[in-house]
């Protein structure tokens, strides 16, 4: 098996990353670092920190000269970072020593790498925004179409009270809608430029460090945090946390669907079911299983990411390396979960007959709470609860429907509509429609 399923020729279709996969390659990293170097030179030229003619030459060259990532391996292995090798290779490719000397003027490797990473994370968040919008639209369609389809609600894995399939879908969608709404603030609080020099003091920028950082931020479309953040990994951890929550929410959806599609329930059909190598009858819920597996991986990776959040002193190689080992996989797996969910949701089909059969086979126990409240109109609530508990035990012991036992025990009690699932869903249909409306208003 390949070191990463996302790079595997066998498994990349099972865990598809879509366009996000292009953001986490050696070529993408080198290209983004060159963009930062070019923008830095341009800003320094405008401020007179380096000759303007050299700044223009360097900026143009960063857009035109390709650097082979493989050629940086030896230098990265020796120095612990690829930037020294990148700068050396770029200066050589310029074939203009009078200009090449001004490349990377006063910056440090972490300035270039952190800023380049933010350029790619910005694209990833844009990708997630588009994907979430598409997914929410599909969930809204599903919730609205089945807003009034009765379904057994379950708590602790046990039958609870009637809900609707639409409200269950809305339960998946509401927190995703919240995540989408958090993106503007997340971008503002996390997509930062980094430019602080060797030890975070900007001493090499002739007293213009703050002005230069602001100019670089404007040139790259990133935010100027107004300070060094070499040893503050908060921006990266915030983005990782947001991606983790997205993966968790999609994993919850997948886990619910695994249970709903299992042979003993069969309440939902997953459009892209998988087959078995030996059992012809199998319709395996592959995509829901992918969502759950990816969520578990992302949660674990985020736990590892937290260890990068306490770097020693002004910079810490071990903490930084931990981030490199972890963040790309976290991003790719979260993106794969979103890709999988987008593909899966339009093919989901609820089985109304199977859902109705649950109410029948449970002998009315899903209406026990409603019966206790109906009885509470004639006796104190605690007594009503005890009475219904006693009836429920009879149902379990004899298989007699709760409705029959209730009618026999309380012949004068009005039980109209109480054992009709479509009349006992409370606000579930309204909640499903409210979710759909909220998505439509985006």
UniProtKB/TrEMBL annotation:
In terms of Gene3D superfamilies, this protein maps to: Fumarase/aspartase (C-terminal domain), Fumarase/aspartase (Central domain)
Keyword Nuclease present in the record's keywords: the answer is: no
Signal peptide start and end residues:
none
Superkingdom field: Bacteria
Q: Name one GO molecular function term.
A: lyase activity
Query: InterPro entries, per this entry?
Result: AdenyloSucc_lyase_C, Fumarate_lyase_CS, Fumarate_lyase_fam, Fumarate_lyase_N, L-Aspartase-like
Q: Which UniProt keywords apply?
A: Lyase
Cite the Adenylosuccinate lyase C-terminal domain residue spans from the record.
363-436
Q: Which family does it belong to?
A: Belongs to the class-II fumarase/aspartase family.
Return the protein name.
Adenylosuccinate lyase family protein
Q: Which organism is it from?
A: Pseudooceanicola spongiae
């Amino acid at each position: 098996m390949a070191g990463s399923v996302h790079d595997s020729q066998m498994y990349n279709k099972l865990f598809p990353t879509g366009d996000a996969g292009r953001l986490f390659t050696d070529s993408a990293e080198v290209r983004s670092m060159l963009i930062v170097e070019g923008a830095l030179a341009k800003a320094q030229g405008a401020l007179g920190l380096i000759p303007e003619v050299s700044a223009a030459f360097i900026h143009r060259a960063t857009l035109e000269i390709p650097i082979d990532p493989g050629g940086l391996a030896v230098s990265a292995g020796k120095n612990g970072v690829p930037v020294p090798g990148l700068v050396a290779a770029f200066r050589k490719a310029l074939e203009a020593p009078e200009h090449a000397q001004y490349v990377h003027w006063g910056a440090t490797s972490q300035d270039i790498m952190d800023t380049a990473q933010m350029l790619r994370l910005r694209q990833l968040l844009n990708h997630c925004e588009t994907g979430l919008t598409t997914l929410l639209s599909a969930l809204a369609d599903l919730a609205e179409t089945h807003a009034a389809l009765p379904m057994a609600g379950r708590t602790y894995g046990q039958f609870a009270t009637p809900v609707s399939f639409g409200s269950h879908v809305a339960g998946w969608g509401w927190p995703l809608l919240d995540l989408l709404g958090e993106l503007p603030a997340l971008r503002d609080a996390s997509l930062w430029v980094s430019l602080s020099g060797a030890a975070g003091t900007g001493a090499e920028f002739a007293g213009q460090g703050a002005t230069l950082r602001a100019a670089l931020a404007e040139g790259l479309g990133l935010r100027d945090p107004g300070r060094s953040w070499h040893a503050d990994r908060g921006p990266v951890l915030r983005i990782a946390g947001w991606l983790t929550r997205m993966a968790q929410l999609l994993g919850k959806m997948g886990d619910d669907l695994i249970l709903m599609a299992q042979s003993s329930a069969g309440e939902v059909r997953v459009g892209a079911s998988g087959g078995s190598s030996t059992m012809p009858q199998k319709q395996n819920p592959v995509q829901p299983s992918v969502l759950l597996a990816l969520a578990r991986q992302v949660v674990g990776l985020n736990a590892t990411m937290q260890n990068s959040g306490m770097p020693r002193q002004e910079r810490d190689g071990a903490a930084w390396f931990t981030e490199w080992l972890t963040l790309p996989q976290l991003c790719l797996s979260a993106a794969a979960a979103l890709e999988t969910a987008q593909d899966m949701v339009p093919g989901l089909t609820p089985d109304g007959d199977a859902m109705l059969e649950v109410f029948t086979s449970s002998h009315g126990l899903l209406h026990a709470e409603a019966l206790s409240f109906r009885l509470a109109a004639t006796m104190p609530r605690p007594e009503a609860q005890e009475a219904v508990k006693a009836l429920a035990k009879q149902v379990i012991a004899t298989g007699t429907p709760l409705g029959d036992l209730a009618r026999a025990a309380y012949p004068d009690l009005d039980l109209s509509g109480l054992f009709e699932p479509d009349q006992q869903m409370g606000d579930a249909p309204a909640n499903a429609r409210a979710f759909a409306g909220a998505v439509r208003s985006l």
